[in-house]
Amino acid sequence: MKPIRKNFGSDNVGPISPAILDALVAANQGTVPSYGGDPWTARLQEVVRDAFEAPEAEVFAVATGTAANALALSALVPPYGGVYCDQSAHIENDECGAPEFFTGGAKLLTLPSLDGKLSPAVLRANLQASRAIGVHKSRPTAISITQATEWGTTYSLEQVREIGDTARELGLSLHMDGARFANALVTLGCTPADVTWRAGVDVLSLGATKNGAMAAEAVVFFRPGLSEEFARRRKRAGHLWSKARYLSAQLVAYLQDGLWLDNARQANAMATRLADGLLRLEGASLLHPVQSNEVFAVLPEPVIARLEVQGFLFYRWYLPQGLEVDPGRLPIRLVTGLDTEAADVDALLAAAG
Hints:
Elements: H1 18-27, H2 39-51, E1 58-62, H3 65-74, E2 81-86, H4 90-93, H5 98-103, E3 107-111, H6 120-133, E4 139-146, H7 157-170, E5 173-178, H8 181-188, E6 203-207, E7 217-221, H9 230-236, H10 245-255, H11 259-278, E8 285-286, E9 294-300, H12 301-309, E10 315-316, E11 329-335, H13 342-352
Parallel strand pairs: 2-3, 2-4, 4-5, 5-6
Antiparallel strand pairs: 1-7, 6-7, 8-9, 9-11, 10-11
């Protein structure tokens, strides 16, 4: 009998998807050219181009999401530039200054929101103010949005298009942090192309590690010319693997045969089941609607303590500026993964009740 999974702290805590593990074993045969000269890396280009209906896309595999985001931004922003992002963005809060380091000093320009989404109106107002200051302020050069956001919300197709149109209007490039891109895609029910390059996204950090890979992310350039020096940026950053087949094999297996969407669909469904169950508890509420595989719940302190005593793992969270809760109730974050099952969710709900 499978043990109950009690760790809802992150989607990084789960195992490798079996199909990806099988792909690594299959790739572990014989000798092939190093540094990306192997058949798996060539196949990765084809698979991504097919999935995104983008025959000119350029794809570069790296091992971590931090590398994907920071190196992608380094291709878009000069050292004196600035990157607009939401105040909750991973690049601002969880990457130890890597974007600033790999861009050579560009500044992250954070903007406020309650739900992790940038607003075109706020972007325009901030850019106008910045340009009025002139040479004394970092020049905004790019926008970075997170899909799904750090609050588990998802930009709609129309919202991404509005951001894309705003980027073009303002002369900025648009980067998408897609650490949970597959989870957003399942929620939206659209094609990968529709929510990326067709909506104005220039570069995508395509996440796989949170959704079943061992360690593999891809930087996908949709606009020709942007990737011209990226191969050297990746090498200089230490992310050009000599045995590149093992990165590429993971990503090929991830994208082939719909594995990435199947994994995300399971994680999302379990997050919805979890949220619905928590809302049946007295005094419980959600900070945001569940639109991916993250649940941000506000629970009475005794319920939280009861879960912790029984060994369930999650993060006590913070309130976004502008939101308040009643005394005695606290926000927490719970994350489901491809290996989360109904029995795991139901065990947590039983312990909470």
